[in-house]
Write a structure and sequence with these properties.
Length: 299
């Protein structure tokens, strides 16, 4: 064991710690490791406390702390746990960004993206959860402006926000890029605005939106008929059409028009993309079965 009075040259410190002489001299020049004394020839010498200090400096550097932070620890202006916590937060953010970058690169490889698409994907994927939520809020602000923002259905529509995990899959990155492009597309905005206006104006649409149990039952049955090759004009199709119109108290032609106005694959895609990003169960397409139901109502 080293005695308290033992001193070391820079070369001896280097041999004991495995650090290069150049590095130890740099720490000394930066006043992180001031020499205990100097020899008659002017060479720096260090005692056992300096050796312990150097070991601490090396450990903190290996943990990724900068020289300024290390200086604060050594001057007792900040504790190691305090700085470790700050550094841990920075590392977590760096890891999150690296994972996101990895997911973007995987998506680029998968899609064989061109340079412009790569640039767009990286820009969109780098947005924070708050920025993504703001994009959706701005979209729905425009979609429901002046239409009675307290409407329960519209409130439910705008409540879902896209949230990418810290380590997104390439599919989630692709979904976010497609989603962001979709909500900024003027034709899609016009579509959803039109749907919102009709919903606010037509009581029967609000009733239909509130009866999701009936809607899912009808479209599930329509899908079964479609998969089985049953024609919309068949007795099964007419029976389902009569049931739907009767349950809502509407004539079949009017109901067909109401449903058809809202049956757009892009509106469905909005929720499918949201499910991919947020890790929800997949949302199967109902678009073909709704087309079958509309045809049955019009048969």
């Amino acid at each position: 064991m080293d005695s308290v009075g033992r001193t070391f040259t820079i070369g001896e410190l280097a041999r004991r710690t495995g650090l290069p002489v150049k590095t130890i001299r740099f720490y000394s020049d930066e006043e992180l490791l001031p020499p205990t004394d100097r020899t008659a020839a002017g060479y720096r010498i260090y005692d056992t406390r300096a050796l312990a200090r150097l070991e601490l400096i090396r450990t903190l550097r290996e943990l990724g702390l900068g020289l300024d932070d290390i200086a604060e620890v050594l001057a007792a202006r900040a504790s190691v746990p305090q700085l470790a916590e700050r550094h841990l937060e920075a590392l977590d953010e760096q890891i999150r960004r690296l994972r996101l970058r990895r997911a973007v690169l995987r998506a680029v490889v998968k899609r064989e993206s061109e340079p412009e698409e790569v640039k767009l994907m990286n820009k969109l994927a780098s947005m924070s959860d708050e920025e993504r939520a703001r994009l959706v809020d701005e979209f729905w602000d425009e979609m429901v402006a002046g239409l009675g923002e307290e409407d329960e259905f519209l409130v439910r529509m705008r409540s879902a926000k896209p949230t990418l995990p810290d380590d997104p899959t390439p599919e989630q990155v692709e979904a976010w890029v497609e989603f962001a492009e979709l909500v900024r597309d003027p034709s899609f905005r016009a579509l959803i605005r039109g749907m919102s206006e009709r919903h606010a104006r037509q009581e029967d649409l609000r009733v239909l939106a509130e009866r999701q149990d009936l809607w899912c039952d009808w479209t599930d049955r329509a899908k079964a008929f479609l998969d089985a090759g049953v024609a919309p004009s068949s007795p099964e199709g007419r029976a389902l059409a009569d049931e739907a119109a009767g349950a809502l108290g509407m004539d079949k032609r009017t109901l067909a028009d109401r449903i058809d106005e809202g049956n757009d694959a892009r509106a469905e895609r909005y929720w499918q993309l949201m499910a991919i990003m947020n890790g929800w169960p997949p949302i199967p397409t109902r678009y073909p079965s709704v087309e079958w139901l509309v045809a049955a109502l019009r048969a």
